Amino acid sequence: MKNLVNKVIKKLIKKKFKISFAESCTGGLLSSSITSISGSSKVFNLGLITYSNKTKVNILKVSDKIIKKYGAVSEECCLSMVKNLSKITKSKICISITGIAGPNGGTKSKPVGLVYIGVKKGNKIITKKNLFKNKGRISIQKITVRTALNMIDNIV
């Protein structure tokens, strides 16, 4: 994964893009993967861990109505997170992640391994619904970070 992180950082530096993250189920792992590389300060702007619904509402200004109607783990919440992160940070690229890393918290309609990733570059927004195999919490967090990095790589 270090090669992918290096590749993404080099592309961001070359284009002079700043990047910001709003992470939930990854708990800062995406931010950590970027900031573990020397030189990342040229591109890394902000990393928020909006783990609770309350912080999603209070910090990221996700509408309480969205969380009540669709839940924190939903495309609607993910989309709102990435849009509002972009307003807060003015970063060229913004990423939002919300999901269920387990081992608990899953339901039939929202199983462990369900993760939404939002990527916003300029006016373009992509949200991706993922259903990762439940191979444990750390595994789900790592595959989520890898998937987000690949999405960044593809958009830069």
Helix/strand class: alpha/beta
Instruction: Give me the Rg, rounded.
Output: 14 Å
What is the residue-mean pLDDT, rounded to a whole number?
97
What is the name of the CATH architecture?
Answer: Alpha-Beta Complex
Q: Strand-residue fraction?
A: 15-25%
**The CATH class:** Alpha Beta
Query: What is the helix fraction of residues, given as a range?
Result: 40-55%
Terminal Cα span: 18 Å
Question: Strand order within the widest sheet?
Answer: 2-1-3-4-5
Please trace the helix and strand order, writing H or E for each element.
HEHEHHHEEEH
Instruction: Give the low-confidence spans.
Output: none
Overall domain count:
1
Largest sheet: 5 strands, mixed
Per DSSP, the total helix count is: 6
Number of strands: 5
Instruction: Tell me the name of the CATH homologous superfamily.
Output: CinA-like
CATH level-3 fold name: Maf protein
Shape: globular
List the helices and strands and how they pair.
Blueprint: H1 2-15, E1 19-23, H2 29-35, E2 44-49, H3 53-58, H4 64-70, H5 75-89, E3 93-99, E4 114-121, E5 124-131, H6 137-155
Parallel strand pairs: 1-2, 1-3
Antiparallel strand pairs: 3-4, 4-5
Task: Give me some keywords for this one.
156 residues, alpha/beta, Maf protein, 6 helices, 44% helix, globular
Structural account:
The protein has a five-stranded mixed β-sheet with strand order 2-1-3-4-5, sandwiched between helices. The chain is α/β, with parallel strands linked by helices and 156 residues long. The protein has one domain (2-155): Alpha-Beta Complex (Maf protein). It is built from six helices and five strands, in the order H-E-H-E-H-H-H-E-E-E-H. Helix 2 (29-35) links the parallel strand 1 (19-23) and strand 2.
